């Protein structure tokens, strides 16, 4: 005989039959009928119509029948409030029963009847039960207060139940304490401001005592409550930790995790040099590992929390990598979490093992998991620099498998690797291009397009590749469209000559034929940039990208600290603060880790100084803030300071607007050829040009604006080598634009026409920004002076020596080739002034082997003169100090391709004729140092 | 706290619901069904699902989803642990936990659930106490009940709940006093292609069956307690004595319980008792592949390996397998592509092997993935970690109990990559 018989229905009305049975005189039949009613209720059938009949059965001595009726009441009282009143009397009577089981049952059931009218009658019995002699009744009553609060909060406060509940925290029975804490915590959640759980050292002590003796569930409530307490100093924190640690060995994983939360939070207050701190760290690892051998659901929650713990204190689990290795029959949600933690734990020490595992995973069946594994390889490469090479070769192996989704995923991560380690692994581009056709996912396509655009100068058929993508432009997803637009613009800036059509095509596709505002806006911005100022366009589009780092997927530290306080809760599973998802945001108090407070006795050791403060030695590089400020004022070139009549950048800025666009712009979007570049003699553009530099210019014999030093023209191409055409010239840099000042002399006997000029690829991408304009034919013995504007968006190829420029000039007679060395300072850009902090950091960051030392002799200048002279060539003095009678200048400059050079210049005052300047240069690309030194020398000696 | 519980079968029908607070509409489970549909297998349904107003936490056991509904921030582990307790209780009460059995005993199920939680707070989760409150159904009791009209609800106050040893009921009496302990170790390992260990760890438990009269106080000591550096105890174990003396001292619950579970981590050297030699190859050109595996004993401390089964999920491209085992029986399910080979006992003189050919779908390319081999085995009278019980003493009672200790090692998740 089983209960399934209660589910059988008869042909006649079921309710009708039950009603008859319930009203039967026979006890046995009555009970059977109630059982049937309950069975129907359990499966969701509506049996509320039987309410009065069931309530009638309540007056019975049979405990089972009583319980069954109670069950029924709880379910249906709400729908029949008037009827429910009928039951009140029995409840009140049962609350006085000599049997504590019945008293507890009555008060418990009464609380579950969510009817306002009943609650009024509940108060008196509840008050009695809260003070009952039997702890079982007290603990049931404690929960009942929480129930009542849920139904009618005001009533609970008015009746003073909250105070009674607070008193129960000091109850002698641990189970009562635990339930009181649980009830108060639940009530407190709806009263964020109220100070219900007002914890003080005494109550903490009570809780800790109860913690050892109450049930596992009670321990969870108490631990969660403890976690909200902020100890007054590190001693108290330590003593609480000591008493909580045994909970780590509990069989209930929820107890373990709550204990971990308390420890992680209070650990924050302990000094790191304390022995106890190390002990605690060691004790935390085993329980966390044990959680991973539990059922998959528990593992999942544990893994989400371990993810947080690993980010906060990686040292706890750094030796436990292996437990996170994936078993092939783990559920997918466990696999993915394990993978994430594996990457977080990856370090140089274990990377070989991790990579071997990841490669293994990449051949599994589950597509999602395989993708994530491939991605993980990329993240390892970014995280552990030493492993990058191995990761790349692993990825290449995977690409060779030709499994479509593996290839696509690999390409996406290789893009990230390129961004982290530029100029290192580009040799693999060819392999990537082979797989171009198999890419069908937007992300992979976008990644590939990015790679083609970014490295357009190394891919011979970059334009063809991009063109092939362009054919189906409108069918692509937005991600791909945006990337394609950017890539083609990059390509154009790098290879302007061959790709004009392509860029026009993509611009018109993006701006005219697209409904997507993002795409349109980006298209217009590029268009405008290209048409007004290609140099600026280049700076914007080809700007040096910040390196990506593994931190991109880390949780932001303040959020992490908050989440650590929520270990073991839903917040920790979602990795979001409760305010972000808890219903209505009620009851959410932001938690934060306690600050470290040492107890008064312990002396603060030097190591405990806050990590944020800069260590003393760092300050030594630049003397004091006061000094520096003075120096900066001297150097400040901003408009408010009416400084010495130096070439001020504010004036120069004005000139940019006057001249820059006129010279460089490619007017008209449909035709990217600039109008005749008015080879404006530069000094025309600056009528207010500062006197001093004008004077200076006179000496060099060329009318240049104030600006960097200009060398006298030298003969580059002698007439005898070029069938009578003699070319001499020099390079200038003024107001942000570089030009090549040429003097063409016709020493032949015939007229020369049809001049054109072209540069070979060179180290810094120098290229003519406009065609060579010689208006009239050049008659014999005539000389013409031309200023050819240059830009630095041309193709790049490293030359030997670095500043070598190969030029081809054509006229109606022939094509002539010559090469010349350009002074590097024409490439020093105007915004080469580094922030002081930045300078310090960069100086330290560049390894010492990149430092180059030079001497500049016979330079009779003092520090001020040196600094102002260098300033006009865009070498900026950031700070100056005097050490043992020597002036030290700290300077920075930036090249057009974004390379920063930092310099320390030591000037020994004394006999001017023997003066020696010591120059130390630091740069990430040490090969430029030599040329920078030469630039220094030329600038300072002329 | 826990609001409601829904029991859902794998067909997606809710066959039981229980609400401890206000009633939550069944429609909340629609979010669960969505997730269920998305997951390829029942095991892959995520355990935490958020809905606009509630959170659904679920465990999947015995082909039933136990879905708990919560509304406020509650520790998810607390909920999941509780659900596990529900499953264990059902199993304890009814022997098996399946949809038909739960339906048969729906009233008891309902009563038990009611006792386990009050307003979402756990009330009585120890099966000792629950059984005092609500008697589990037995054939005899059902018969007696129908004759005498008595019920299966106890009218006792669960006395144990109030004592300092809530896990033990008072007034226990036995004529034969006996205490048995089983040390059971499961070895989880991943072995790579070449036969070296990628990771191996041991999950051990000591399960006890104690039937002793009165209030016995037991101590259990080990020969080599140092092995146990990562342990979880039953609440009855006195933690302080373990910390100071490495001795388990406890007043046991009555009947069956898990005294201790422990974990011997991957950092210690773990002995691997079995090895698998495999040669599985598919060729690109032909539609035939070769398959050969041999199983042999490795570090078994002279004990024999029994109950060996080998299973492996073959790639999708495999059509059929033509294999001959040297012992035991094997099956290959062409639908699920699951190969299983029931080996039995390993005879070290004549190692069991399974050889033959694999035929692939004509024209299909060589499978990308390599099948992983899953191994099951048992070794009696051996705890592979080397753990040994030294002695068991009883205080507090006069009689002499009968004591017994048994060791066993089993394969947990033991996988060999090929």
Automatic annotation (TrEMBL), chain A:
It comes from the Eukaryota. Residues 709-819 form the Clathrin adaptor alpha/beta/gamma-adaptin appendage Ig-like subdomain domain. SUPFAM superfamilies: ARM repeat, Clathrin adaptor appendage domain, Subdomain of clathrin and coatomer appendage domain. Belongs to the adaptor complexes large subunit family. One of its GO terms (cellular component) is cytoplasmic vesicle. This is AP complex subunit beta. Residues 828-941 form the Beta-adaptin appendage C-terminal subdomain domain. Residues 594-616 have a biased composition (Low complexity). Pfam families: Adaptin_N, Alpha_adaptinC2, B2-adapt-app_C. It is found in: Endomembrane system. The gene is AP1B1. PANTHER family: ADAPTOR COMPLEX SUBUNIT BETA FAMILY MEMBER. GO terms for molecular function: clathrin binding. Residues 585-619 are annotated as: Disordered. Signal peptide: none annotated. It is a peripheral membrane protein. One of its GO terms (biological process) is vesicle-mediated transport. It comes from Phocoena sinus. InterPro entries: AP_beta (IPR026739), AP_complex_bsu_1_2_4 (IPR016342), ARM-like (IPR011989), ARM-type_fold (IPR016024), Armadillo (IPR000225), B-adaptin_app_sub_C (IPR015151), Clathrin/coatomer_adapt-like_N (IPR002553), Clathrin_a/b/g-adaptin_app_Ig (IPR008152).
Automatic annotation (TrEMBL), chain B:
Residues 176-417 form the MHD domain. PANTHER family: AP COMPLEX SUBUNIT MU. It is a peripheral membrane protein. SUPFAM superfamilies: Second domain of Mu2 adaptin subunit (ap50) of ap2 adaptor (SSF49447), SNARE-like (SSF64356). Keywords: Cytoplasmic vesicle, Golgi apparatus, Membrane, Protein transport, Transport. It comes from Phocoena sinus (Vaquita). Belongs to the adaptor complexes medium subunit family. Pfam families: Adap_comp_sub (PF00928), Clat_adaptor_s (PF01217). It is found in: Golgi apparatus; Cytoplasmic vesicle membrane. The gene is AP3M2. One of its GO terms (cellular component) is cytoplasmic vesicle membrane. The keyword Disulfide bond does not apply. This is AP-3 complex subunit mu-2. One of its GO terms (biological process) is synaptic vesicle endocytosis.
